Amino acid sequence: MTVPQQVIIILIVVFGTMMTRFLPFLIFSAEKPTPSYIKYLGKVLPPAVFGLLVIYSLRKVNVFEGNYGIPELVSVLVIIVLHSWKRNMLLSIASGTILYMFLVQIVF
How much of the chain exceeds pLDDT 90, in percent? Predict the structure, then answer.
């Protein structure tokens, strides 16, 4: 890929990123109330995205081979317990990730 092509791609990516950041402010003014469907999407999309990420992360776990999905199960349980106890998403996800990496690299 040539340098001009790389510059063009970078500019397109920057433009696309800026449009996704600025477009809502251009479409929805501060004077008007936010439409109900936008409020609805703001309420239901975050849990849907996390559910999708969980399914995507665990889709290739095979409970009949290798470590039988034990590191994944233990890590998910730690995430659930920590999040239920502390209500801190960063703590629960970081702890589960660190535990999973430890279990996969050291234990299993």
Answer: 81
In angstroms, the CA 34 to CA 19 distance is 19
Mind listing the pLDDT tens digit for each residue in 65-88?
Answer: 988 999 999 999 999 999 999 999
d(CA 82, CA 92) in angstroms, rounded, equals 5
pLDDT number for residue 34: 87
Q: Where are the domains of the chain?
A: 63-108
Residues 62-94, buried b or exposed e (16+ Cβ, 10 A)? eeeeeeeeebbeebbebbeebbeeeeeeeebee
* Tokens matching residue 57: 């992360």
